[in-house]
Amino acid sequence: MNKLEILGKYFGCGSFRSGQETLIDGILSGKDVLGILPTGGGKSLCYQLPALMLDGVTAVISPLISLMTDQRDALLQRGINAVCLNSAASPDENAAAERALISGHAKIVYLSPERLENPRTLSLFSKIPLSLIAVDEAHCISQWGHDFRPAYLRIAEFADDLPKRPIIAAFTATATPAVRRDIFERLRLNDPVTVVNSFARDNLFFEVNRQPNDAEKLLDTVEFLRRMGADNGSCGIIYCSSREKTEIISRSLNGMGFSCLPYHAGMSAEERQRNQNAFLSGQCPVIAATNAFGMGINKPDVRFVLHYNMPGSPEAYYQEAGRAGRDGKASVCRLLYSDSDSFIVRALIDEAEQNSELDEETAAFVKKVRLKQLSATENILRSGNCLQNEILRYFGESSPKRCGRCSVCDRRTEYRDCTVEAQKILSCVKRMGERFGISDTTAVLRGINSRFITENGFDRLSTYGIMKDSSDKEIREITLELIKQGYLKQSEDRSLHFTENTATVLYARTRFLVRLPIQNSVAEPFTPSAALTEFLSPPVPYDEKLFARLKAIRDKVSTVCGLPAYAVMPDNVLKEISAAKPTTADDLLKIKGVSPEHFRRCGERLLAEILTYINETKHQGG
Ligand code: ADP
Ligand code: MG
To answer: Each residue of 138-197: pLDDT tens digit?
Structure first.
């Protein structure tokens, strides 16, 4: 079979995605490759397909056991024999995997990087020809990434110790220039064929909203879930910063009529698996998870990802958000943060340093990197520029065009020169003795008549009432902006104080610009704007009744065979089938995503059900 036949037959795809063919051809011609493709870009195919065409075995180095087993299971479903070698499997299972490799029965083996240090592994691979080492999530090799794994540093040496050095293929979704250099040097890639695809995700709509506290965040979340149709089967992930929060949010949302399950590393493996399966199969549309969830989760129809807290790094943010819309359909990534989030992330960074298993010097370095990543995240969220462009710039990509879809591009806001307003506020803060907070200062500026003001003699200040034409909200916004931009600071008792930068605005050496809603336009934060509504075009219509019946069959097969529902037939493919209503095996196999393996599992039963259904409806109709 040639590569296109394999692509169709085993992977159910009609054509390659951007970059895939170049990388596959590189491997097939015996060269090292480096593929930097965004999440959902289809990196797995770049090594799985050549693995079937190369003579020997392909070893895939992967950082997480769950990721390995998921990928192995997905391959088994496609009729490709793959095995895993890792510490979670029993010695018997590992021995069986080794036998399958030695006998040539399995061509793909997934390994944890730590496994390479096991002498058994080297001895195994001196017995069987290893053609290719595919390093997945290759950013783990760099302290500059967000998931540093020292064991990744062993890979190059391992390859050199083999009788014949195999091809090395490295893949990652997140690589800043520094990480890219580390991958290249530390894997000792030999003149690799390199593909760097744009990270721009045209089908994702990025939204950021600052909320004062968790209660407001929850309200925002509920509005958002309704807007996204989460009460109507549309699926999404809510990323939380702590285990407790995943539990609290699930409970709250379930209480409000949504169906949501938690997922975090503190749950038993069994419970985690159950919740993950419920989400993957579409049984439970929403999962509230810590960042333990998702690496390698291959659910194409995730319609939204909501970050409930500020993520620790742009890398983590973009990778997690990027789990939305892998099927290429319009999806929304919303991020909620409050000012206290930065402190939480800082505390987590400190804690990680304390508990680090790295040597002291490396741990200190990693901490420095983390802090830098946190401030990069803050800058992206607060820059007031197009969100996607800011993210892309961080990854070393420049785009002259605004994306036109993110909440910054879409919001009806404009920069206004508020230097004069700022000067009034600042001089009022000074005259009040830097002892009061935002509301008291605002009251003086607006010339409010109250006991508090007369008793303190604030009505005799020259700043009393100098902003009486402005609204409370406006003064407040500008004051908050002064804090954000570092011209004022707030102490613990909320009183306002000058900073070393205040003078530059006060004496007009700097213009003070603020992004404010365009005047006369009513800001409606939860109503989708015209741009978003247009962007989220309606899904393909399908026959819901038929879908429900096909789904029931699929679920039964899934239970009987002990396979996850998506492996028997994913929901989105079932929807396509319910729309097309094929009645012959040929027509069913023509539908995108229906592989011969899927067909073998449940094809005949689905066809029978479709025929029954068509007959029934005909009967009812006539
Ligand atoms: P990555 O590892 O880059 O995040 P995956 O390898 O998990 O992405 O692939 C993401 C999704 O894209 C999977 O559902 C996969 O089946 C699908 N996919 C990959 N290549 C193609 C292709 N050429 N055509 C259609 N779908 C593809
Ligand atoms: Mg992947």
So the answer is: 999 998 877 889 999 999 999 999 999 999 999 998 778 889 999 999 999 999 999 988
Compute how many other C-beta atoms are within 10 angstroms of the C-beta atom of residue 188.
14
| Whole-number Å distance between alpha carbons of 250 and 239 | 11
Q: Which residue's CA is minimally distant from atom 24 of ligand 1? A: 13
Give residue ranges with CB within 6 A of ligand 1: 13, 16-17, 20, 37, 39-45, 173, 298, 300, 326
How close is the Cα of 44 to the center of ligand 1, in Å?
7
Answer whether 189's CB lies under 8 Å from 168's CB: yes
Tell me: the pLDDT tens digits for 554-595? 988 888 877 777 778 888 889 889 999 999 988 998 887 788
Q: Which atom of ligand 1 is nearest to the CA of 38?
A: 3
Q: At what angle do helices 360-382 and 341-354 cross, to 10 degrees?
A: 170
Ligand nearest to the CA of 74: 1
- Residue 45 Cα to ligand 1 midpoint, Å, equals 7
Q: Which residues surround ligand 2, an ion (CB under 5 A)?
A: 43
Non-local CB neighbours of 315 within 8 Å, separated by 6+ positions: 139, 145, 146, 174, 176, 373
80 C-alpha vs ligand 1 centroid, how far in Å?
16
Cβ contacts of 563 within 8 Å, gap of 6 or more: 73, 77, 557, 601
Mapped onto helix, strand or coil, the DSSP state of residue 102 is helix
- In order of start, what are the domains of the chain with their CATH numbers? 3-196 (3.40.50.300), 204-410 (3.40.50.300), 413-517 (1.10.10.10), 544-621 (1.10.150.80)
Nearest CA to ligand 1 atom 18: 42
Reading the block at residue 600, the tokens are 């073998």
Tell me the ligand closest to 110's alpha carbon. 2
Confidence of residue 21 (pLDDT cuts 50, 70, 90): very high
Ligand 1 centroid distance, CA of 43 (Å): 7
Query: pTM for the whole thing?
Result: 0.60
**Side chain identity, residue 557:** V
pLDDT tier, 38 (very low <50, low <70, confident <90, very high otherwise):
confident
Q: 180 alpha carbon to ligand 2 midpoint, in Å?
A: 17
